[in-house]
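Sample intake sheet
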Amino acid sequence: MKRLLVVIFLLCSINSIAQQKDRITPVKALYIYNFLTLTDFPNEKKLSEVVIMIPCNDGDSESLRTQLKDKYEGKKIGKRKIVISNSDDLTDLSKVSMIYVPKSCSSMAEKVKIAIGRKPILFVGSELKYGFPMVNMVIVDERVKFHINEAYFNRNNLKVNDRLIQYAEDVVKNEEEWNSVASKLEYELSENKNDKITIEKEDLAYILEEYNTKIIEIKELEKEFEVKKKEIENLENSIRSNSEKLALKEEELYLKNAELDSVRNVLEVQKRRVEIKTAELDLLTQNLRKQQSTYEGLTHEVENQKVFIDSMNNVLSGLGDSIQQNLALINDQNQKIKVKDDELVVQKETISEQQKQLFVSILFVILIAVGGIIVYRSYRQKKKANLILEEQRSRIETQKREIEHQHEEIMDSIAYAKRIQTAILPPPRLVKEYLAKSFVLYKPKDVVAGDFYWMEPVGDMVLFAAADCTGHGVPGAMVSVVCNGGLNRAVREFGLAEPGQILTKTRELVIQEFEKSEEEVKDGMDVALCSLGPASASGTSLEFAGAHNPLWVVRKGAEEVEEFKADKQPIGKYAEQKPFITHKVELKEGDTFYVFSDGFADQFGGDKGKKFKTANFKKLLISIQDQPIEKHQELIDQAFEDWRGKLEQLDDVCVIGVRV
């Protein structure tokens, strides 16, 4: 009797659970559809289909797949038609837009995340680990609550539509809230397990009647059941053992294939990026060389024109002096004529006086004629000189406009180079996301710089560096693009995470790039590279490796700087190349550390026009430790400008500070 009641209880419980799942499955399907419609995909205009994959074959997944097919397959999002995939092949995701993994199939979650990588595919999960998928759902009181991992969205070039936040009333904002929701779910499940079943009197009579008729058959079946049970248990143990071995082998093979595909994709992308950057740099170099040659020729011609104009001005000045002398002579003659006129009045009665007057008159006419000729010739020469001067001025003005046009083209090219360099720098949003208490002081000497800063998150760590490439301006910026690419390849392509190994591999890649040139290139960079791990109860772990540039640590309450020296070798060609050493530093809450280029300490200024020097730099950092880390950038920048005064900035400046 008791056994039959237990069977009935189980049947009722199963029926209750099935009814609950029947109510929840349409809700899940609706939310999955909404997540898909309210997510912006970068390649959505190129796709004709929106493919949803559920790579699991358990009962819940099959029920959800059926619900999605019945209600949403064939619907359109814009011009794209929804398709529900029956495939569980994670090696080909070229047409997939969304992957859904429930808790009942959580073992697939890690495989899905590896297969997705950085592809623009929406990863939705149900009751998975906090923050693991892009959208994580949990159902409490038949209502869907979910958490959005916005950083994961951004990393895969997806964007959460603002309408999703406005539409959602049950968005989980942090891990504490998620744990609260999960605890409530577990409590409700445990409460459901303790529910009691009430059996009506008529049903009980029917059950007893059935029991009396079947009790003999049940006893016989029990004996057979025990025998079969032992056989089945033995068979199940054997199958389970073989299945576990097979599953492990399949998982290992799948992970290897996924890693290989990921590496191939990264290699292909990096190869295309390097080809594009190399072509852009070659074109920029050719344009700069042509423009520099044209500018030098025009400058030389302008100098020649200036010399000619100065010569013509001297000639005109001489002609002006000659004209002034002639005018003075005429005035003098006029005075003499006036005297003669007076004498003519006195002696007009005598013939001799008339003769003298006639002679003077003739002489006066001759002098006037000679003076007129001289003035006329001077006027013609001056007019001719003015025409020549005007022509020269016109040519100079034309050349000036050409030089200004060339200058504009050069500045446009340099501005484009700045946009390229700015594109490789990590944006402030990314810096604050992974280094919340930090600052970056970046002051290029020219429009573009040889200094740059770099960041790359790897797992639960974040890698960042302050780098100083050979030279500054356009040549330094071109070297910085090559060195930045070397750091990216060392981490993304070769999978390195230890700072010393990263610098060693970067040096090898940079030398390979420069060896392609027919001329010997000895350019490279000095760099300070850090790897910062997550904070724990015992503190925070920091790893450091450097090429010439050190790491400075200021412990909380300390009055001096603790220095970790870098290797005395650059990232580039060097006589004695050795592997770079990784230093491990344990940090406590309140400690502050800095990496930087040499531009700050080498700046000339002050009353005597001397270098700032590293000793004064250390004193400056100690003096501002009581200030918030966000204010350090302003204080250090102000100290630099006060020291520099009216002197020109000597070199690019890059300083990164982080407080634990």
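Comment: The longest strand covers residues 461-469. Confidence is low (pLDDT under 50) at residues 1-20, 186-204.
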